[in-house]
């Protein structure tokens, strides 16, 4: 597959296509200055990113939507050039809440449709507008999860034209099989968004998804921020890895660019997040070189099977996805 900055889309199993190089917009709403998401998405579109990854629970979809709409109004892009991914949060899993949740995202973005809508996590929380519901003792309040019922409501959103494609995120093999083996399945998930980078290469889940024609999109493709409230800090920082740095020297690239190229070259989408204009530009510059087979194997050899994003605070949820091997 020859990839260029202009052409790096892959086919999805429903006939649509998705650019492998995406721009992540997650930001901690408590510490991120207002307007930063808006400015960053505008920079990203100018640089050449066409796949924008967002979510209701990031609290900045209004900024992301405004940036996209302004770039369309300027004539920089058309709506059909942009691939926007939105996400269904854990408190909206009951089937009757799925479409209203997507409609809320569309209203916030001020767009008529999204290109991909995914179930963000396979764990349902107590339904409602409190995104992280807790009881008086500070314990998370979970809800009975029926992934097949939630999926049927997702299918209805696709049929209604509110989203072009539907997928999942953080699903393990068993949870994917629940959907794929569902009686009367209308639309297969086109994608599974999971943690994926040289220290956590996901060989088994990746192979399973390939067999089922499900595209893998890797989040935290550069490792993660060192936010101890949700990140496993025992993992060494990925971008200080000697192998990635030395391969980078050969191509005059950074460790980050090598890590991104590694995933994209094996057909895995990436959604690096940065609010630094220079880095946003740098992360996109991975189409003017390719890694050799030996380099790809060497980077695969960095896999430690250790996650940065463990979500242990929800480890006692019946559908917590990371107890299974993959």
Structural summary, described in words:
The protein is an alpha/beta fold and 326 residues long. It is 33% helix and 13% strand. The protein is built from ten helices and ten strands. The protein has helices spanning 36-47, 61-74, 95-109, 147-159, 173-180, 203-211, 242-251, 255-265, 277-284, 293-300; strands spanning 9-11, 17-19, 22-24, 51-53, 83-88, 114-119, 163-169, 191-195, 215-219, 269-270. The strands form two sheets. It has an eight-stranded parallel beta sheet. A two-stranded antiparallel ribbon has the order 1-2. A hairpin with a 5-residue loop joins strand 1 and strand 2. Helix 3 (95-109) packs across helix 4. The protein starts with 8 loop residues before the first strand and ends in a 26-residue tail after the last helix. 44% of the residues are buried.
Give a quick precis of the structure.
It contains ten helices and ten strands.
How would you sum up the global shape?
globular
| Count of β-strands | 10
Low-confidence residue ranges: none
Main β sheet profile:
8 strands, parallel
Q: Measure the end-to-end span.
A: 27 Å
